[in-house]
Amino acid sequence: MFIIFLLCLMALFAPILTKHPWNMPSGSALEAPSKAHILGTDDLGIDLWAQICYGARNSILVGIGSALLSSFLGAFLGIVSGYYGGITDLAVTAVIDILMAIPNLPIMIVAGAFFGPSVKNIIIILSILSWAVPARLIRSKVLALKQETYVKVAKGYGANFVYITFRHFMPQLFPIYATSFIKLISKAIVSEASLSFLGLGDPTSKSWGLILNYALNFSGIYFTDFWKWWVVYPLAFIICLVLATAILSRELEKVWDVKLSGL
Amino acid sequence: MTKSHKSKLLILLILAAIALNVTGCGLKPQQNTVAGSDEQKDFPLIIRLEGGDWGFPSPFAHYSRGPGMAKMRLIYDSLLEKGEKGLIPWLAKSWSISPDGREYTFVLNSQVKWHDGEILSAEDVKFSFEYFLKHPPVSNSLLIDGKPFIEKIDIIDENQVKITVSEPNSTILDRLGIVRIIPKHIWETIDDPKKVTDLDKLVGCGPYILTDYSQEQGAYRFQAFKDYWGPKPLVDIIEFVPVSDPVLAFEKGEIDLIKVPEDLMTRYLGNEEYKLLKSPAFWGYKLMFNMEKKPELADIAVRKAIAHAINVNELIEKVARGAAVPASPGYLPIDHIWHNPDVTKYEFDLEKAKALLNNRTLDLVLLIADDQKEARIAELLKINFAKVGINLKAQAVDMKTRDSMVKEQNYELALIGHGGWGQDADILRENYGVIVAKDSSPSSNVIPGYSNPKINELCIKQLTELDEESRKAMIMELQKIISDEIPLLPLYNTVEYAVFRPQKYDGWVHVFDHHEVTHNKLSYLER
Predict the structure, then answer these.
(1) What is the ipTM for the molecules in this complex?
(2) What is the pLDDT of residues A185-232, one digit of tens each?
(3) Which residues of A touch B398 (CB under 8 A)?
(4) What is the DSSP secondary-structure string of A102-139?
(5) A44 — contact with chain B (CB < 8 Å)?
(6) What residues of B are in contact with residue A202 (Cβ under 8 Å)?
(7) Domains (ranges, CATH) in chain B?
(8) What does the pLDDT look like over B450-465, one tens digit per residue?
(9) Chain B neighbours among A 128-147 (CB < 8 Å)?
């Protein structure tokens, strides 16, 4: 939690935290970490710390953006299919099954190549591919909730779908929603990194994945000293963020599990 | 003296080894040095090179870039070959040109065998030229500005062929000489040669036979043809294998030659185990302007502003890591025999660029391939362009997509890198003075929306000028005009170093007009 908070702060206050521009060379190419450039510079002479701070915006934006979108999509479709059942349910579960069965990365690559590299497209593609898991969880929860007496009573009094969803389903579903949201964040961050890594992000934007991509594609980097800063630091940040979100979702699950069983 | 040198070297080596172990890259290149000369006689010499899919290596199906063409040329021979200094006799042991410059007579070597054992005849030569006119190959030298120039082909006797051309022209010998000779008995029944993908149809008379090709892996395996008519193949098997990181693969001995990045030069320089070969600067990047799609670019002031807003030295220092030379705005690179050093140059000057733009702002989309270097160039261009009021957006696509988008003229600005900058100066015509591109190769292009009568006229004149000195003078003038006009902007030409282990194979050589040692067949043959 603390790490995520810190990284978000870092992204928000990037202009204050960095004295060098993120999109312009401020030193000579591939300078080792020093006082002037605390994490060194990349091959264009752009300060790495600045790139990582600003890149955090992109990475976290993609992470949160696609998690938000896909968990919303997942929740909506999950509730609809759980509530209405019948053909709707059949259709949604079929799509879920398909999405869960096909490998995501190749699809992302094809889609990325097809729609062109941009942050917006990455977010959309990631969300389309990752709503299946929360949808399934939420659907099964809704199926259970539907049998609860108070829902049936509400229905009997003429409450409509929207009312029941907001009044009765949402509070119950929130824990599932939140944990899957957090899980999706970390998944999206890794996917963004791998997509940018494969060259499907905007080639001149900055994200952690892209920094890493350029570093790893630098010919013979492991035989030079450059990898010590150019590869290690962005990698460390990615790992930190992903681990932090993973731990957070674990903890949340624990906390809410207790609450859920207490109900 | 030598002793102290040696010991110094030894200490250095040991230190290097320790440093490597400490950094976790415990690769020991010394391990691979054992291959003795005795062993080589018993075992076939297998040379492995970096793979990649460059298409099925038939003259009709390979990819229109150097690596694709080179593989096809291992299988197919031509009348003449490009040697270290110039054209050399190949399938034709001699040739003569009539005084009016219209008749070319080639005397063929006798007893040249096709891979399937048949004997090559003058009939095959005639057939090849005629077939290529009907079915243009990927790399097509038989058209000038989209029109064929061969009038007729006569078989004089079983090993003499006379080709009559419609007009005398300074590039004909080169054009006829590099045409691949294909067997009549295979192709005469084939109507759609692009669709041929059977290995057993790939019968040539060149030094190598393709035994395996995997498109998915980008792997090729070539075996020496034991009845080859010409110089003995020294390499028994050439394999192109997929590698993820060429440097790592080379260090592990998985491949036998790489282009060494500038930062690793010290690793191989002065080490007896390795040998380095410097390439001539015949590979380069250029910036293409589409004046049809972006009429602003037709304004010469805008093109000049762009030229002044590009810091070529920074590109060379950062993207090429120093391994390049600035390209000439007159196109022919510094290593070209007819390079004109006195062309108009555009130094990096943002103020001048701003003045030329005169407070205009421009929005441009730059098409690039999804390649590290091109993305980096795009990023640096973007930074400097922003300072003069040009808003540049990079659009990255797959390399092959980029190549075809450039061909289809579907771009505003395009960055494209290719070889062939060392070829006959007629490339000036093929790049600046044509309305039809030569073939699908990225080294020749039409500039959309641009036509300059002065350039066009000179392009045609140099082509028909048979006197070398006056042709050279024209080429010099042409470069000057081009550099004043910059209808496209050459950025830089790379100077690469190939590194290899001479103990394993030491036959690598550059031919006179090409940058890559692995692309010419002389590198694999006895000399």
Answers:
(1) 0.76
(2) 878 877 877 777 665 666 777 888 888 888 888 888 888 888 888 889
(3) 113
(4) S-HHHHHHHHHHHH-S-HHHHHHHHHHHHSHHHHHHHH
(5) yes
(6) 394, 396
(7) 30-55+206-279+496-524 (3.40.190.10), 77-195 (3.90.76.10), 283-494 (3.10.105.10)
(8) 999 999 999 999 998 9
(9) none
